[in-house]
Structures are given as structure tokens and as C-alpha cells.
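Q: Here's a chain of 326 amino acids. Please give me its 3D structure as C-alpha cells.
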Amino acid sequence: MSVAALLAVMGALACDRGRVRSAEAPTLVVDRDTRLLVFAPHPDDEVLAAGGLIQQVREAEGLVHVIYVTSGDAYVESVKIEEHVANPTTSDYRDYGQHRESEARLAMRTLGVGAWSLTFLGFPNAGLNRLMSTYWSERQSAYRSPYTRRQRPAQSERFIPDTEYRGEDLTHELAEIIGDFRPTLMLVPRAEEQNGDHCATWFFVADALGDVTRVQPRFHTDLVTYIVHFNAWPLEDDDPVLKPPEDLDAGVSGWMTVALTERQVAAKREAVHKYRSQMNAMGWFLDAFVRRTEVFSRPAPPHVALPVAHSVCDQFEDPPRPAKKR
């Protein structure tokens, strides 16, 4: 399938693989019945995108569960800083991934979410897009991370025992999680994210959602997307209100803005700063998300079927980090 065709399919308004609740108004309402499932490609994405919304669900006595698809262990510049090495080794990358997981637990505790509500899948950072095509099934040997040298998650992070670094394995794990948790609200990165792992996470979640709704035809969820990496956004202005990227469409719902209280903003800032490794490397970028609002959108019901011959996410395989604001 060509990239153009894949994008066309991604934007299709009809979905015969499953049903997602259609958007009638660009609002997000949470209450004690809310079961929020957040998909974070790397530790810190959940707080940057939805640290305020997560607090609001907890304050409404709803449930929150966060899925970390990778442990963010392949951020070379930060590994050099944190491990105090010029040429990181396999052990350095693995240690760094564990460190980022520890930071995630601290950050989420700040937002009122305990470690039992966090799942680390341990898939390859900077490699998810490769699993969409070449490393999809058992017909090909499992993908091997050039950083950690792993071909499967650590034993403690395998949701399904025989999981390896293959696309179908990741889809199966995500489908199991969605089917078991039965979220009423799901947060996932947008397909337009200019980071390979973020972009791929959208496709894997959409693919898994199709699997779930085939098996559970009555399952409904509110699928909502967020954005973290898109051009120079959100460094384009210093407005205390976070505005959506001007050159990104608003989805079928229109942009949805969630207002945060001063206390929620302060807690989000504290949670962001728990990611000390990321603050040391690009604190200016993380702090740009700590504002009085968060922005989301609802996509058209996804019709995604993996694998694909050429991943639309390949162009972001090794994206540049955001430039420091001057």
C-alpha cells in the first residue's frame, strides 16, 4: 500500500472493523464512570499531553491506566548526559530505560495515579515504525534494537508471554489490554505526529481497536488524539493558554480545549519535572506544555489494517529533537 493510499484509508469516515462513538460536540466530559486509557509512546508523553486531564479523571473518581509502549531508552543525547559517557553501551541504554520508567512512576504518583495503574510494554524505542511492515510477523526474525540489543521485552514487561519485537505481537498485546480494561475514553497520539514512535503508536492502537471490536461488537469507546511533536509547536508563542498548531487540521470534532485549575497546572508542572533526565536534555520543550489548557481532537473512525508495505511513519525514523528556544 502506498503512503498516499494509507493516509486516505486512515482518514476514511466509515469503519467496518469496529465502532467508535461519533463526536457530536467538541467537548470532553469526565465523571466517576470514566475509564481513561492513555497510550504513551515514551515516558513523559502522558504528562505533557494530558497531565491535567488525568487529574480531572482521578478527581471525578474515574479510573486511569497508562500504557508506555517503549521505555524511551534510545534518546542518545540524554543517555550520554545521564550515564556520563561519550559512547553509550548496551548496558547504558538498558539502564537509562529503567531510569525513565522510575521517573514515570514518580510523575504519575504526583498526579494521583499509582504504579499498579501503569503498564510498561518495553517495545523498541526508535523502532516501532519498522514493526509496521518489515518486522510484522513470524515470517521475519524479530526486530533487534540497535541500542539495547534486545529482540523482545524484558520478561517482566511481556503482557503476553511469547511476545517478541514484531508488529503482530504489539497489536495483540494492545488488543488484550483494551479488551480487558474496556476504556470509555482512549488517548492516543495523532497519525500526523512527526516522531516515528508517536506516529506508529496511532496505527498500532487503531489496528488493535479493530481487533477488539470484531470480537466484542458492542464495545464502544471515545477515541481522542493528542499532539506532542509537530514542527516548532508549541514553542511558537508564550501564551499561557496552549493553542493548537495552526497548520494542523482539527479532526472531525474540532479542537477540544480542557481548562486546568491553578492547582492542576502546578501539579502538572511538578509531574513534568519528575522527568529529570528529560528536563536536563530539553527542559524548555517540556515546560512549553505546562499551561492553563490542554488540547485534543477526535479523529474519523479509523480503518487501519497492518502490516503495510511502506510505513507512512518511516520518514520520522530518526527525527530531530526540538531546537532550544532563544
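Q: Can you summarize the key feature?
A: Residues 1-25 have pLDDT under 50 and may be disordered.
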